[in-house]
Amino acid sequence: MKLTAITLDCSDPEALAAFYRQATGLEVHPKSNSDFAGISGDDGLLIGFQRVDDHRAPCWPDRAVPQQLHLDFAVDDLDEAEALLLELGATKPEYQPGGGRWRVLNDPAGHPFCLTKRPV
Is the distance from CB of 58 to CB of 113 less than 8 angstroms? Predict the structure, then answer.
């Protein structure tokens, strides 16, 4: 098996694709629309965003609406990446379990994701 796509539920696929495009530099899929949008890179992996009516954002770390999954992104500088992502619309939950080894942020639709230090 080869992983070809990861899809997140959300209320506004095009807006979430734009956030992740700005965050990662990946290209928006040409067939993206208001019901399903995606971004992809040269490796062929697609990160998709599908419209779900009445989408309920995860409430991490509260389990009332569990996170269900999260993405990890390797970065060169945690502080720099965090600042950029906050400018793009991410939020930072108060609870940070990584002890400085990683950062947890929420995308504009509420999905948690982690920033990790890129291995040298």
Answer: no
Tell me what pLDDT residue 69 has. 80
Interatomic CA distance for residues 48 and 25, integer angstroms:
15
117 to 32, 49, 63, 106, 109: CA distances (angstroms): 31, 26, 27, 18, 24
Bridge-based pairing state of the strands 36-40 and 46-51: antiparallel
pLDDT for residue 57 is more than 90: no
Q: For 64-89, write each residue's pLDDT tens digit.
A: 887 778 899 999 999 999 999 999 99
User: What are the contacts of 51-56 at 24+ separation with CB within 8 A?
Assistant: 51/10, 51/11, 51/12, 51/13, 52/9, 52/10, 52/11, 53/11, 55/9, 55/10, 55/11, 55/109
Give the Cα separation of 104 and 58 in Å (integer).
13
Alpha carbon distance 117, 16 (integer Å):
24
Question: Average model confidence (pLDDT) for the chain?
Answer: 92
